[in-house]
Design brief:
By secondary structure, the chain is an alpha+beta fold. Helix content is about 25%, strand content about 35%. The chain has a four-stranded antiparallel β-sheet, with no helix packed on it. A three-stranded antiparallel β-sheet has the order 3-4-5, with no helix packed on it.
Length: about 120
């Protein structure tokens, strides 16, 4: 016959095993569905009319686009993207600075170029 003192110890052991299983399952789901494995984000450049281009932010590169009669220079450096130069009349797009966080955006309205970090 079991002693009464064994019941709390057995409950504790069952709870500990259950907690370990739940934590392992949560860790497995996080690894499978969690953040991008490369850690790199991307920018989506929208030219209007449903035309877009995805740019990885994990490799430094210069991009030049001729849009709406203007040449727009986007630069990717150290995981961020910025309008480096634009031939538009007001150059407001250059004042947005470097974008590196999901949800940040910048645009060159005269050229019709919109950049969003994902």
């Amino acid at each position: 016959m079991k002693r009464p003192a064994d019941r709390p110890r057995r409950r504790w052991l069952i709870n500990a095993v259950f907690a370990a299983v739940v934590l392992l399952a949560a860790g497995g789901l996080w690894l499978a569905l969690g953040p991008d494995k490369t850690g790199a984000s991307r920018a989506v450049v929208d030219f209007g009319m449903g035309i877009t281009e995805q740019i990885p932010l994990d490799a430094d590169h210069d991009y030049y686009y001729e849009v709406g009669g203007y040449v727009v220079h986007l630069q990717v450096s150290q995981g961020a993207i910025a309008f480096l130069d634009s031939q538009c009349p007001d150059h407001v797009c250059e004042d947005f600075g470097w974008l590196d966080q999901p949800g940040q955006w910048a645009c060159c309205v005269p050229a019709g170029v919109y950049v969003t970090v994902e």
